């Protein structure tokens, strides 16, 4: 997939989503809260720091589903991750998600967290992408600034929520299945979540997106959300 095609797709999706009705208050990144190591490594990134398209910028929005405050909900269809808050609100982050054949859905928990993680590609990634077996932590690492590891049944699912060295693809479906945020958003989310946090990754094309309040309320009322 060419970068031009992906970029066009992100812009088109942004225009469509901007017409949806969801009260939005955009949040600026507070770099004062970054640790010295964060500032040092983020200053060394070699990717072009292109602004994320407005519909995918971090924002506080109305939230209509029934997940408990402190939960994470991933809406792969619309390329959003929600951190649920009190009072019918959530922090919404734009994300990159897996291509359809590599996407994962289900309910998991945060099993562990790491700042500036190393990358240990799976055998499938090594074969498919031609990458080394190990990539050291740092600004060029595809895992980015933070990694949140998802576990199910006490076992590592091998799916992660993490930063990226390709922020230009926020709003696209190109990853190997993991959920990517900008490095700044990854730091923000990491600081909010705890080990044990519930993570709900909605099934693609299932019609229960938080972005559509009517469908979201309908799915919640039928018991598909809220108790795990």
Key attributes of the depicted protein:
21% helix; 5 helices; alpha+beta; globular; 228 residues; ten-stranded mixed β-sheet; two-stranded parallel sheet
Our Rg estimate from Cα atoms comes to 17 Å
What name is given to the CATH topology?
L,D-transpeptidase catalytic domain-like
* Distance N to C terminus: 38 Å
Task: Give the proportion of residues in helices.
Answer: 10-25%
Domains, number? 1
Tally of helical segments: 5
Q: What is the H-and-E element order?
A: HEHEEEEEEHEEEEHEH
- The side-by-side strand order for the widest beta sheet comes to 1-2-5-4-3-12-7-8-9-11
What is the top-level CATH class? Mainly Beta
> What's the pLDDT, averaged over the residues?
82
What's the number of extended β-strand segments? 12
Name of the CATH architecture: Beta Barrel
pLDDT < 50 runs, ≥5 residues: 1-8, 10-21, 214-228
What is the assigned CATH homologous superfamily?
A: L,D-transpeptidase catalytic domain-like
Q: Largest sheet, described in full?
A: 10 strands, mixed
Could you please describe the fold and organization of this structure?
21% of the residues lie in helices and 25% in strands. The protein has 228 residues and is α+β, with helices and mostly antiparallel strands. The chain has a 10-stranded mixed β-sheet with strand order 1-2-5-4-3-12-7-8-9-11, with helices on one face. Strands 6-10 form a two-stranded parallel sheet. Strand 8 and strand 9 form a beta hairpin. It is globular and about 45 Å long.
């Amino acid at each position: 997939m060419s970068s031009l095609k992906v970029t066009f797709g992100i812009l088109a999706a942004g225009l469509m989503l901007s017409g949806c009705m969801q009260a939005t208050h955009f949040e600026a990144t507070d770099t004062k809260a970054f640790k010295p190591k964060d500032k040092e490594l983020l200053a060394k990134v070699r990717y072009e720091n292109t602004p994320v398209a407005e519909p995918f910028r971090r924002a506080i929005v109305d939230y209509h589903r029934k997940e408990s405050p402190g939960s994470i909900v991933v809406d792969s269809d619309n390329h959003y991750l929600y951190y649920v808050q009190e009072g019918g609100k959530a922090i919404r982050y734009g994300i990159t998600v897996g291509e359809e054949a590599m996407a994962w859905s289900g309910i998991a928990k945060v099993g562990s967290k790491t700042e500036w993680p190393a990358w240990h590609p799976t055998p499938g990634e090594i074969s498919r992408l031609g990458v080394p077996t190990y990539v050291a932590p740092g600004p060029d690492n595809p895992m980015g600034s933070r990694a949140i590891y998802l576990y199910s049944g006490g076992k590592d699912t091998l799916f992660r929520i993490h930063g990226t060295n390709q922020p230009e693809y926020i709003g696209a479906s190109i990853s190997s299945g993991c959920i990517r945020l900008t490095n700044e958003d990854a730091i923000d989310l990491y600081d909010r979540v705890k080990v044990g946090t519930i993570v709900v990754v909605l099934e693609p094309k299932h019609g229960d997106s938080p972005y559509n309040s009517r469908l979201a309320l309908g799915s919640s009322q039928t018991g598909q959300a809220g108790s795990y």
